[in-house]
Structure formats: C-alpha cells, structure tokens
Amino acid sequence: MMLKYLVEKEFRQLFRNPFLPRMILMFPLMILLFLPLAANFEVKNINLVVVDNDRGSSSNALMNKITSSGYFHLIAVADNYREALTYIELDKADVLLEIPVSFEKSLIKEQSADVMISINAVNGTKGAFGRSYLAGIIGDFSSQLRIAWIGSGDRSPVPSFSTIGLFKFNPHLQYPVFMVPALMVMLMTMICGFLPALNIVGEKEKGTMEQMNVTPVKKFTLILSKLIPYWIIGFIVLTIGFIIARIAYGLFPVGDVYTIYIYSSVFILGISGFGLVISNYAKTLQQAMFMMFFFIITFIFMSGLYTPISSMPDWAQFISRFVPLRYMIEVLRMVYLKGSSFGDLITRLYALTGFALFFNGWAVLSYRKVS
Amino acid sequence: MNIVTTEKLTKKFGSFTAVDHISFQVARGEIFGFLGANGAGKTTAMRMLCGLSKPTSGTGSVAGFDIYRQTEDIKRNIGYMSQKFSLYEDLTVRENIRLYGGIYGIKEKEIKPRTDSLLDELGFLSEKNSLVKSLPLGWKQKLSFSVAVFHDPGIVFLDEPTGGVDPSTRRQFWELIYKAADRGITVFVTTHYMDEAEYCDRVSIMVDGRIDALDSPGRLREQYESKTMDGVFQHLARNATRQAD
C-alpha cells in the first residue's frame, strides 16, 4: 500500500521538474538522429598522392578508376617516391600509391604487376580504411583486365579466382542499420541507470532521505518505488527509439518487437539496480556522477557498441562477459537485423536476469536505514 | 509509565565518545526538553532513540520497543522532525501530507478530511496547493511539525525545531507543541533557546556527552540558585571541555 503513495510521489516530482521530462524526450531524438550520421565509420575524401613511374595507359586507367570511386581525392601526381612522401609528412595526403616503371609491361607479359601502397597512419582509421578501399579498387581493376583478355580470345584463359563478399543481414553495410539498435541500448542505459541513482543521492543531500528513514517504509518498498518510474520511462524511451528508427532510417525489426520489450524489461531493471547500488555508496551528487561515468563509459566500450568483441584481446573479451550492455546490444542487433526469435536469444535472457537479480539484491542489502 | 527509557546509552565514533553513558526516562505525555551546547551530543542521542543510529553500548527502549532490535516497530510509533527542513519542496502542502499519511498507514479516505482540518487549524487552507518551497521558513517549520504528528504517534522527536525562526513564530510553534501534548503525544525536543526550556515539563542538560542535570525548570533554577534557565545553563556549560562546532 505504501508503495502506491511513494510511486505517486516520484511521478509528481518527475513531471514537476522543469527539465527532466523534456530531456527524456530530447535525448533519444538527439542521439538517434545525429549520432549515426556524425559518428560514421565510412571514410570519404581520403587524400591520395600517386607516383606514376610508368605513365602508360594502364596506369592512367587505374588512376581514373580510383578517383571515380568517390572515396579518394587525388591531390597530386608526384615524380618520385621521395617527393610524394613529403605530402604525407605535411599531412596533406593519407595514402600514397606508387606504380612501378614496368607496370604495363609486366601486366601484359606476366599477367601480373605489383603496386605499392603507403599509408599515413596518424589517423589510423582513415589510413586503414583507405588501404582496404584502395586494395579493393585495384583488385577490381585487375579482374576487369582479365575479363578483357579472356574476351579478346587471343590468349589462353588465365586461371584466376576472386572472392565475392555477401554481407548477410546488412547487405550494404550501412552504418545506421548497425548502430541504431545499439544506440537504443545506450539510451536506456543513460536514462535508466543515471536517473534513479541521481534521484536517491539528491534526496540524501536534501535530507529528505533521512526523513524517509525514520518512517516504517521497508527498504525493499523504497527501492521499488525508485525503480518503477524509471522502468516505465525506459519503455517510453525504447518506443520513441523504434519510431525514430522507422521514420528516420526506415528500420524496423525483422524479428518480433515483443521479444525486444521483454528482454528490455529485464535489462532496464538490471541497469537501474546498478544505479541504485552506486547511489547507496555515494554521499554526494558529485561522487555519484563520477562513479556512474566511470562505469558507464567502461560498459559502453566493452559492450561491442563501437568495436566488435571478437576482435578484443582475450582478457577484454572476458571482462565483456560481465557487462550487461553487451547482451542487450546483441539482442537488439539480432532481432533488428537477423530476426532472431525469443528462444534463439534465451541465454542472453538468463544473463540479463542474473544481472537484474544481482544488482537489485545488492541495492536492497546495501541500503542502510540505520547507520 | 515511561515512553523512553535509556540505561548507560553510549555512542562512539572511533575514539570519540559522542554520547557517554546517559540514563534517563521520559514519562508518557510530558514535554521533555533536551538541552546542550552545539556538539554536546543531543542529535546523536536522539538519532539512536529514533532508530537511525545503532548505539555502541547501553540499553534503551522507545514506546516499548528495543532500540537495537525493534527499530522498525519504533519507527511506526514515533514522529520525527529533523534539524534540516525535510519535506519535499517540489510537492504541494497537500501532497506532502498525503505522502506521509499514506506511509504511516492512514486510510486513503481519511487522509483528505484530516488534511483539511489540519490546514484549517493552522490557517493554511489557502496554501493547500502551494509548493512547499514557496512557503516562508516559519510556515515550513509549522507544517513540518504537523506532518510529524499527523499519524498521532506516541512520541514526537523534534531536533531544534525553531532554529532561525522569529520570536512570534516560535511562540506559535510552541502553541502547536502544547496542542499535540494535549492530544496525548509525548514531546521530546532539543533547543538552544532558554526561554523555550521554561515551557518544558522537565529538561535535561547535556555537557560533553553526559547528562549533567535533569529536573523541572523550576527546581533546576532553585538548585543552581539562578533566576533564569539561562543562568543554569551557563553554570553547567562553563565546565564543558568539548569544542563547540
């Protein structure tokens, strides 16, 4: 019965807050609309400098192909490697392509030729993407040549093979498709993790918590009264996320929406419980904020949001098993992109339930009515 | 019949003894003044009685419940008003009363009429839907007290309830205390104001964590040959070694 009055109080306070309800609406909009577009791993405008020692028709064709790809911006054709390198040293170029003297000749005679790519690795991401794009374009170029030779028929067919990539579930490797579901998890984490923690510490600072502690309110009831509102808010935020994903990116889950809601309900409980644990140990808002930031940033980087977990070192992969976000991000991506069903993901549900029980149990135990 | 009994009640924080073996009783229905300089240990002693702080040693009971094991039972039977104003400032007067009424198990349909009669008595009816943060301090204190006794507890603990309030509001505040006492609520109040000590049935004076004097104001004045409680207090406090904080 007490719970009714306490939850009612939380909602009244929330809606009377001049800032929070607007924040809860604006936050998903900002994160989902701008982040996937701004923080895009697709690299464009890679500055390229070419050393063309051959100056034949083949090297010209290659250069045309590269510049017409749209990824590269040819800033100069240098006379020699040393000169080209100065562009990289001055940070004017990201990638250097050197075409050897006998490029066309070896292509015709030996049906193969080597080119050299040098990368400016100061901006590692740009360099790495530039290298792989360039390698792809060159590979494409060489297979076109082969087809042309086979077509002309005056040579014996050259035995060759090439790989054809087929990207399942996200055929065009679109960044938003991959990021939007994961960003929804980040949103739930920020809103449902931070707000209850800051709420409790705020009450500690104001002294209203002590007043609650001299009432017969049970620890469990009090904790529940802090959880329930943020649980509901979590659902609202998730729904807003679905709508934005649909309207802005044309994304909708291949799988069942209810699967996402059920898994999210457990996830939100866990992450809110985590926030409550922090709030029990923090005496001031400053302490609480700092602790939350530390853990949330760790969680985000270890969760596979930005970098795949499988490419992390073993110890980091091990740690990531203890990060609740990891499981929820997997669930959202798999339901959204692959259409995984409730049953396919059941081990994640066990993990999320474990986190929810662990953190909330800890929150109830560490909450002290008596000092 | 005593509502509060303590025997050698002690609280230590590390090597510092905040409350040093205090033993006293408070009778049901009395207004009990708990005096002492800043840092004498009043608030710590009160927090132990309210079940907010575990004693280091000694025994005690409040409203018939043990202060070690039955803190939750104690909490059902007491009211508490802390030194720091602690109603919810972003809730209205009515919402605060409703919240605490609900927490103490007052029936939903009783809360509204009781709220109205309380506010009528306080002359607050027009402020019923005002946010608490918009009220002047004196009103806040009166409201805070009224909320602490809204559920008719056996005893109410008041920690410096009139700090920073003007004399006429303090006067009104004490009228509220008398009204509550008339309803049979025992009042346990700490204060710095010696004129307020005169309003109490009995007062205890704490010095350095100990209770150095405990009697009715009249008898204390006689004993220490002083015309006022202020004189009694000065006489005792002069012996204090603890630095006020």
SSE layout and pairing:
The complex is a heterodimer of chains A (371) and B (245).
Chain A: H1 2-16, H2 20-38, E1 46-52, H3 57-68, E2 72-78, H4 81-89, E3 95-99, H5 103-110, E4 116-119, H6 124-152, H7 175-206, H8 208-213, H9 219-249, H10 257-281, H11 285-302, H12 314-320, H13 324-338, H14 346-366
Parallel strand pairs in A: 1-2, 1-3
Antiparallel strand pairs in A: 3-4
Helix pairs in contact in A: 1-9, 2-7, 2-9, 7-9, 7-10, 7-11, 7-13, 9-10, 10-13, 10-14, 13-14
Chain B: E1 2-13, E2 16-27, E3 31-36, H1 42-49, E4 57-62, E5 65-66, H2 71-77, E6 78-81, H3 93-103, H4 108-122, H5 137-148, E7 155-159, H6 167-182, E8 186-191, H7 194-198, E9 202-207, E10 210-215, H8 217-223, H9 229-237
Parallel strand pairs in B: 3-8, 3-9, 6-7, 7-8
Antiparallel strand pairs in B: 1-2, 1-4, 4-5, 9-10
Helix pairs in contact in B: 3-4, 5-6
